[in-house]
Q: What sequence folds into this?
């Protein structure tokens, strides 16, 4: 049985542990929904001061569609290029927003969200979707969070 360890804080050492746990959870599993679900649950357990974590996946119409997540119900569809998720998808680069109220065109699925980080999931040059994490605090995500969450996403992308 897999055991999710409890963490205090999101320091570099703890990020290394959560990346190892992700690898252990998904390395033999080929089902994408199962892997994304476990990844969302793992991040929800690991990250402090967040209120939503999950995935939006690109569909055949080129829109981001809600995938596995942890948190309150969310927007179902986000056009590429719109909001933080759509911007990260369009640029295919991480977007870290310290205060969502200052982001032009921010899509407010949860009024409690104050900061956000979105990591695009790109494999072999093809956009698969995005990892979206929201916090009820402004300035929640820093450079270390970005680097380690990008590494976390890279492990996940290998199994998608």
A:
């Amino acid at each position: 049985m897999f055991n999710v360890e409890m963490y205090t804080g999101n320091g570099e050492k703890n990020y290394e542990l959560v990346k190892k746990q992700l690898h252990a959870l998904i390395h033999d599993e080929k089902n994408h929904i199962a892997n994304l679900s476990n990844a969302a649950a793992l991040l929800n357990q690991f990250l402090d001061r967040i209120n939503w974590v999950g995935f939006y996946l690109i569909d055949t119409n080129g829109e981001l569609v809600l995938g596995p997540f942890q948190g309150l119900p969310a927007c179902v569809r986000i056009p590429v290029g719109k909001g933080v998720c759509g911007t990260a998808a369009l640029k295919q680069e991480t977007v870290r927003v310290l205060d969502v109220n200052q982001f032009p065109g921010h899509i407010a699925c949860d009024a409690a969200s104050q900061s956000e980080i979105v990591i695009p999931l790109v494999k072999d040059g093809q956009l698969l979707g995005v990892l979206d994490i929201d916090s009820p605090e402004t300035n929640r995500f820093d450079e270390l969070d970005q680097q380690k969450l990008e590494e976390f996403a890279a492990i996940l992308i290998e199994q998608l």
